[in-house]
């Protein structure tokens, strides 16, 4: 952890830290149709500190930072930089003021090199020719200074997620950003990569930059920040120092009530194998073998969690099981019946339910109503359709029941799906998938981008479903989640299961090492 | 209750106001054009209105013009709702007209109650085939449907020109010298009956209105329509939910083709001459209804019932345009330009329409009633997540 802001005063940035803040946002209010996303929020950052914004999804963290970056205009309030009040009508003005933003979703061109991506949009020093060699040299220099391992000539599509993130940070540094905003930067990283990233952050702060770290992960915020501001429902709940607070207090501030941590699940006798996958090989989008010779088995009444860094074949595995991606070799059996290479409809008929990773793309139709979205998989069921005509009364009753049973917060059944929050969308999808009483449930990233309250709820429903004897396979990049839910944990690395451990034997560090490719005998050593 | 009613009213006003503004805007720019040609726009527009909507005869001609637009247009709503861009209305009209004509030539002696439905069915089948081909190409080979439907328009017209000049040519034309590419007078048993004595208004209007209602029911009341809309809005989510995406795409184009083909049959059997006739140009048979139908559908907000209304407006423009030309003495290309202006304005108004609709929806979001008994930790408003993420 970096030293607290009151340091000995030998370095300039630290001295400034007690004086004028490099950024001060005062009374920021931003309204969207029907919602106040930010309600008189105050926030400031001093040079040489990490000031975290902690809050559930929808608390207004991202909105506040988008206002800072010129993507939104505040309805009320004032932004001051060191030289006084400013108006930031666009990101280019923000960049001009030395503000850099690293988005949750990377804004890189995969077919270009690292240097090209960094140089994109900047004037060349040798116009009209490019100056990529100079850009490359400068990148190496910055990389050296801040421990950002990067190869300027590498193509972005060749890079792993963690490296791509470093490119984003490099872009901001290259533009001389003195204030960096990082929106959920750790969501896609292994624990080790997170450590590397944090040490880079510390060096940036040491050099006098200001950092805004947006997260909903309490332990990360605690380990990195100098100050923590918690937002809830668009309002500032409070600003605290990490050494003067606890995880529990922060969680209460975020959610507004106590959150139970690390629940014990009642043991359930695992039954017969419901899902058995043997020797599964699946081609990825680029024709590579994304999944190779993978074996896994899930029994009724058990949850198997698949951990791993994204891009190690998890998505392809899920799609192959669901019938959305052709199977090159191997077998997938649902209750003994071979389903490899069958259509999604046929696999569903055999009793599979599937909560997809890309819920906005695959799980939900934004322009469909809540009711229509709930009917996507069931619309031909004789309960809801007779002779090709939809039975609206039965559908309404069914949907109203699902919405209340699964606590989907929606103004009405006619509300469009895209107007729901992430957590409610996930609850809607879960409601739909569980309503069919599945034999096997496949859930990809159950709570990614979902707030704490909804996460807890979703976890409870999954445990409940396990109690009913469903075989559940969970694919998640969130190690805490995998550890909280699973009876057995499989780690996927480069298309295969590199290790499979029972939950009691699993440790964060051990799993983290396996996620990085270390075999289990050494990782769990 | 009151608020809900006001929301619904607001939405309807918002969605119908934008196209109206578009038409007025187009007519204003058109007035400038008329002035530039030294014509009096007020007089011109009066002539347009009177000849399109001013009398029983005028309304009948407008309705007749509107019939193929409705049929092509409601077909377009199916295709566009499934996110398939069907530019093949022209070819589908021709294919439907041809198959219906062949049917009438082959079985001229069947009684009217049998022959008329049969030729209409043949028209639909012809159009369905002509739409199904690009549908299959798109679904299974990934061929862009915009290109393939346009190409098939050309193919259909050439096939028609060949058939009407050769195998199907009216025998009396062979002996004569004029050689108009047309068939003989088709069996009177296949004539679409005249609805109002003294006008040309024929039963095609009933076919068109029925088709619009059927398409509305299909899209919003049936499982097939549910799939069509789901595939159109998100093929990924549809595939994931187990819907047959490829088959649905093909179905959408085939259905659009079937409706246009029906329009082709109506063009033949509702014509004054009761023949299939062309003039050798690409739009000689269709009168460009295959293209104008797209505009009518867009103007109708891709809603089958609004498409009926917009087809009527466009039919009026087509009928009235001729009168403008005659009364204020402007070149016919100016009328084409006027129609084009309406198209441009309508398409641009789509953006305006969306914005207005969004605004009309605001009150609905401001009053979120969580469904029964929010459990512990409630109080989070459903909309709060919108700004973030």
Short overview:
By secondary structure, chain A is α/β, with parallel strands linked by helices.
Query: CATH architecture of chain B, please?
Result: Orthogonal Bundle
Count of separate structural domains of chain B? 1
> What number of structural domains do the residues of chain A give?
3
- The CATH class designation of chain B is Mainly Alpha
What amount of the residues of chain B lies in strands? under 5%
Q: What is the strand arrangement across the widest sheet of chain A?
A: 6-7-8-3-9-10
Q: Write the CATH fold name of chain B.
A: ABC transporter involved in vitamin B12 uptake, BtuC
Q: Structural class from helices and strands of chain B?
A: mainly alpha
User: Could you please say which CATH topology of the largest domain in chain A applies here?
Assistant: Rossmann fold
Secondary-structure-based class of chain A equals alpha/beta
Biggest interface and which pair forms it?
Answer: A-B, 68 and 47 residues
Range of helix content of chain A = 25-40%
Low-confidence stretches of chain B: 359-389
Compute the CA-based radius of gyration of chain B: 23 Å
Oligomer: heterodimer
Number of helices of chain B: 14
Number-wise, the strands of chain A total: 22
Can you walk me through this structure?
The complex is a heterodimer of chains A (525) and B (389). By secondary structure, chain A is α/β, with parallel strands linked by helices. Chain A contains 19 helices and 22 strands. In chain A, α15 packs parallel to α16 (452-467). Mean pLDDT of chain A is 86; it is low at 1-17. By secondary structure, chain B is an all-alpha fold. Chain B has a single domain (40-329), classed as ABC transporter involved in vitamin B12 uptake, BtuC (Orthogonal Bundle), CATH 1.10.3470. Chain B is 72% helix and 0% strand. Chain B contains 14 helices and no strands. Chain B has helices spanning 2-36, 41-53, 56-81, 89-106, 112-141, 145-165, 171-175, 204-221, 223-233, 235-240, 245-269, 289-299, 304-328, 332-366. Chain B is globular, with a radius of gyration of 23 Å. The two termini of chain B are 34 Å apart. Chains A and B meet through β2, α2, α11, α12 and β18 of A and α9, α10 and α14 of B.
């Amino acid at each position: 952890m970096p030293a607290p802001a009151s340091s000995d005063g030998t370095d300039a940035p630290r001295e400034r830290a007690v004086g004028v803040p490099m950024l001060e946002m005062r009374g920021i209010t931003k309204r969207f149709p029907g919602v106040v996303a930010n309600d008189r929020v105050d926030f400031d950052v001093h040079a040489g500190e990490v000031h975290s914004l902690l809050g559930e999804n929808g608390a207004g963290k991202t909105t506040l930072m988008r206002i800072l970056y010129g993507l939104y205009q505040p309805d009320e309030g004032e932004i001051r930089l060191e030289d006084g009040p400013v108006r930031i009508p666009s990101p280019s003005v923000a960049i001009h003021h030395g503000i850099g933003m690293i988005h949750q979703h990377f804004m890189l061109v995969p077919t270009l090199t690292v240097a090209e991506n960094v140089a994109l949009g900047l004037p060349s020093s040798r116009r009209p020719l490019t100056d990529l060699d100079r850009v490359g040299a400068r990148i190496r220099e910055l990389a050296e200074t801040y421990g950002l391992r990067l190869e300027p000539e590498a193509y972005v599509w060749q890079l792993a997620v963690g490296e791509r993130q470093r490119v984003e940070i490099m872009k901001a540094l290259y533009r001389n950003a003195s204030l960096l905003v990082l929106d959920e930067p750790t969501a896609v990283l292994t624990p080790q990569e997170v450590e590397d990233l944090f040490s880079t952050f510390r060096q940036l702060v040491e050099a006098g930059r200001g950092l805004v770290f947006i997260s909903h992960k309490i332990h990360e915020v605690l380990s990195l920040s100098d100050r923590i501001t918690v937002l809830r429902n668009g309002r500032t709940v409070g600003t605290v120092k990490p050494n003067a607070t606890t995880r529990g207090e922060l969680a209460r501030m975020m959610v507004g009530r106590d959150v139970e941590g690390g629940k014990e699940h009642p043991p359930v006798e695992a039954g017969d194998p419901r899902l058995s996958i043997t020797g599964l090989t699946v081609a990825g989008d680029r024709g590579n073998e994304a999944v190779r010779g993978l074996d896994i088995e899930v029994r009724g009444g058990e949850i198997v969690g698949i951990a791993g860094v994204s891009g190690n074949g998890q998505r392809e595995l899920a799609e192959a099981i669901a019938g959305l991606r052709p199977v090159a070799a191997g077998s997938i059996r649902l209750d003994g019946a071979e389903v490899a290479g069958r259509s999604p409809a046929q696999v569903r008929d055999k009793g599979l339910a599937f909560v997809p990773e890309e819920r906005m793309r695959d799980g939900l139709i934004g322009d469909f109503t809540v009711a229509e979205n709930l009917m996507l998989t069931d619309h031909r069921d004789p309960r809801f359709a007779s002779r090709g005509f939809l039975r609206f009364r039965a559908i309404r009753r069914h949907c109203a029941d699902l919405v209340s049973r699964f606590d989907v917060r929606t103004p009405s059944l006619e509300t469009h799906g895209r107007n729901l929050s992430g957590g409610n969308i996930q609850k809607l999808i879960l409601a739909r998938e569980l309503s069919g009483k599945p034999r096997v449930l496949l859930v990809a990233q159950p709570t990614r981008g979902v707030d704490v309250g909804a996460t807890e709820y979703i976890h409870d429903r999954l445990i409940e479903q396990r109690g009913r004897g469903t075989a559940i396979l969970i694919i998640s990049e969130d190690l805490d989640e995998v550890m909280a839910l699973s009876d057995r944990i499989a780690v996927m690395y480069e298309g295969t299961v590199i290790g499979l451990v029972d939950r009691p034997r699993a440790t964060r560090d051990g799993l983290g090492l396996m996620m990085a490719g270390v075999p289990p005998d050494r990782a769990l050593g | 209750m009151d608020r809900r009613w006001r929301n619904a009213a607001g939405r309807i006003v918002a969605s119908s106001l934008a196209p109206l503004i578009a038409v007025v805007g187009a007519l204003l720019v058109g007035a400038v054009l008329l002035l530039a040609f030294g014509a009096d726009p007020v007089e011109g527009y009066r002539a347009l209105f009177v000849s399109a909507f001013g009398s029983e005869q005028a309304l009948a001609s407008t309705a007749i013009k509107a019939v193929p637009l409705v049929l092509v247009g409601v077909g377009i709503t199916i295709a566009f709702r499934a996110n398939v861009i069907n530019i093949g209305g022209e070819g589908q009209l021709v294919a439907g007209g041809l198959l219906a004509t062949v049917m009438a030539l082959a079985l001229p002696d069947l009684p009217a109650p049998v022959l008329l439905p049969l030729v209409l069915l043949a028209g639909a089948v012809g159009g369905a085939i002509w739409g199904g081909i690009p549908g299959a190409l798109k679904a299974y080979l990934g061929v862009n449907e915009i290109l393939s439907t346009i190409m098939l328009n050309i193919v259909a017209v050439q096939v028609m020109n060949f058939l009407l000049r050769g195998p199907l040519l009216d025998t009396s034309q062979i002996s004569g010298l004029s050689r108009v590419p047309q068939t003989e007078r088709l069996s009177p048993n296949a004539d679409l009956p005249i609805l109002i004595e003294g006008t040309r208004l024929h039963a095609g209007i009933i076919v068109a209105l029925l088709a619009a209602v059927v398409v509305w029911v299909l899209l919003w009341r049936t499982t097939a329509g549910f799939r069509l809309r789901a595939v159109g809005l998100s093929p990924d989510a549809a595939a994931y939910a187990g819907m047959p995406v490829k088959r649905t795409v093909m179905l959408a184009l085939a259905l659009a083709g079937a409706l246009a083909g029906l329009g082709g049959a109506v063009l033949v059997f509702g014509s004054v001459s009761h023949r299939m006739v062309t003039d050798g140009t690409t739009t000689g048979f269709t009168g460009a209804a295959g293209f104008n139908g797209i505009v009518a559908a867009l103007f109708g907000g891709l809603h089958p019932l609004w498409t009926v209304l917009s087809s009527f407006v466009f039919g009026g423009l087509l009928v009235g345009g001729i009168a403008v030309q005659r009364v204020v003495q402007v070149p016919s290309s100016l009328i084409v330009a006027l129609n084009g202006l309406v198209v441009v304005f309508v398409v641009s108004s789509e953006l305006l329409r969306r914005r207005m609709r969004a605004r009309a929806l605001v009150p609905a979001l401001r009053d979120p009633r969580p469904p029964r008994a929010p459990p512990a930790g409630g109080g989070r408003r459903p909309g709060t997540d919108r700004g973030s993420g």
